[in-house]
Specification:
This protein has helices spanning 30-42, 45-48, 88-97, 112-115, 120-130, 163-170, 184-196, 200-203, 244-253, 263-271, 278-289, 304-317, 319-322, 348-356, 381-392, 404-419; strands spanning 62-65, 68-71, 152-153, 221-223, 226-228, 358-359, 371-372. It is mainly α. The chain folds into 3 domains: 14-170, no CATH class; 184-289, Orthogonal Bundle (Cytochrome Bc1 Complex, Chain D, domain 2), CATH 1.10.760; 304-419, Cytochrome Bc1 Complex, Chain D, domain 2. The strands form 3 sheets. It has a 3-stranded antiparallel β-sheet, with no helix packed on it. It has a two-stranded antiparallel ribbon with strand order 4-5. A hairpin with a 2-residue loop joins strand 4 (221-223) and strand 5 (226-228). Helix 7 (184-196) crosses helix 11 (278-289) and helix 9 (244-253) packs across helix 11 (278-289). The two termini are 23 Å apart.
Length: 420
């Protein structure tokens, strides 16, 4: 459960029957609880609802938004600081309508515009699994029952009443309806991506008020000083050159012959997509491959002097792992050639990875993690811009030029994050 962001995926949801809402009936069977656990795991709920060093699902994690910080609530069944006192109907209303038990509007950092597409039976399965968690009385997270819990949002958004206007503009509650012109597998993938997975929360661009620009569905967005790349079917900056098996491999392991997951996506792979059955991942891949992409304007190219400087830096500091031809080492060091993220119109991720370094997460399918050192201490803003420009415009890559001022601003923002 993420900010206007974070692309995690839902498992076993299609088995609930996506044609409509089933009548509610309490079901605490083993199969139902396992189904709920799969959905919770696949929705990456633990990532947002667990603060560093805290108990799982007990909340308190600060989540960045363009309008300030939101602190995730405790979703364990503790009756005072969690959701143990909520009825099943109140839980469904939160998921489907974005309201808490007192009728106050939730913030879309909790992606209810996506969860609204879930069937009632899937929502009930999630709730029934959460009820089996150990209740945690959290001193970090404020009460999930407090409609006016403290946030770091700017005025007037710190008043929940104003979310009524946001919902009126950008939220249309309603369950997913399958497309009869598409296959069952495509519809399954659409249900996962558009619903519990809330992939568009990260990968769909946002307007100035934080609403999805649905005319650019899954075409990439800047979030939390990362760029979530296009995952629609564009060849250069999306998944157009990836096969469905390539997408499955990436979601299962965090790596494939085109790219490697880092930053927030590495967390998503570790906590979510790596746990999904291949059939679900393949359905997602089928849907993504059928989603129209958008060609990215290559923009202005770097000056030859800057390009040459970047080439020398790359040879000295990068080629040992990524190879002189940019092909990387299979399943260990990701390729930079024909890398969609590297060629994104927004260079935020490329700049940030060079500054901070990166590390993949181990999964059951790929237990060996790989890492890249940080270069913020070694390279100046001009040098980082130069090597970024070389990488983004070599080996067939094509992307707009990166300026030293962009690097300086990213460095400033990352330092500000550390100071918070």
């Amino acid at each position: 459960m993420n900010i206007f962001r974070y692309g995690a995926l839902a498992a076993m949801a299609f088995s609930a029957g996506i044609a409509g809402t089933a009548a509610y009936a309490a079901d605490t069977s083993y199969a139902q609880l396992q189904r709920g656990k799969s959905l919770v795991d696949a929705g990456d709920c633990v990532s947002c609802h667990t603060v560093d060093g805290g108990k799982p699902f007990a909340g308190g994690r600060p989540i960045e938004t363009p309008f300030g910080l939101i602190y995730s609530p405790n979703i364990t069944p503790d009756r005072e600081t969690g959701i143990g006192a909520w009825s099943d109907e109140e839980f469904y209303n939160a998921m489907h309508f974005g309201t808490d038990p007192k009728g106050a509007r939730l913030y879309p950092a909790f992606p209810y515009p996506y969860y609204s597409k879930l069937t009632r039976s899937d929502v009930d399965a999630i709730r029934q699994y959460l009820n089996t968690l150990p209740p945690v009385r959290s001193a970090i997270a404020v009460s999930a029952n407090n409609a006016h819990r403290v946030s770091g949002l700017i005025w007037p958004l710190n008043y929940r009443f104003f979310m009524r206007g946001w919902d009126w503009l950008f939220f249309d509650p309603g369950e997913f309806r399958p497309n009869p012109k598409k296959s069952a597998e495509w519809n399954r993938g659409a249900y996962l991506v558009e619903g519990a997975a809330h992939c568009g929360a990260c990968h769909t661009p946002k307007n100035t008020l934080g609403g999805d620009e649905n005319s650019h569905l899954l075409q990439g967005a800047n979030i939390q000083n990362w760029f979530a790349p296009q995952i629609a079917n564009d060849v250069r900056s999306g998944v157009g050159s990836w096969s469905t098996d390539d997408i499955v491999e990436y979601l299962k392991t965090g790596r494939n012959k085109f790219s490697g997951a880092t930053g927030p996506m590495a967390e998503v792979v570790g906590n979510s997509t790596s746990k999904l059955p291949d059939s679900d991942l393949h359905a997602i891949a089928v849907y993504l491959k059928d989603t129209p992409g958008a060609a990215v304007d290559a923009g202005s190219k770097p000056e030859q002097k800057i390009f040459a400087s970047g080439k020398a830096i790359f040879a000295d500091s990068c080629a040992g792992c990524h190879q002189a031809n940019g092909q990387g080492v299979p399943q260990m060091f990701p390729p930079l050639a024909h890398n969609a993220n590297v060629q994104s119109s927004d260079p935020a991720t490329t700049i940030r990875v060079i500054l901070e370094g990166a590390q993949t997460v181990p999964t059951s399918a790929r237990p060996t993690a790989s890492s890249m050192p940080a270069y913020n201490w070694k390279l100046s803003d001009d040098q980082i811009a130069a090597v970024a420009n070389f990488v983004r415009n070599s080996w067939g890559n094509s992307a707009p030029a990166v300026s030293a001022s962009q690097v300086a601003e990213m460095r400033r923002q990352l330092q500000a994050n550390i100071a918070q």
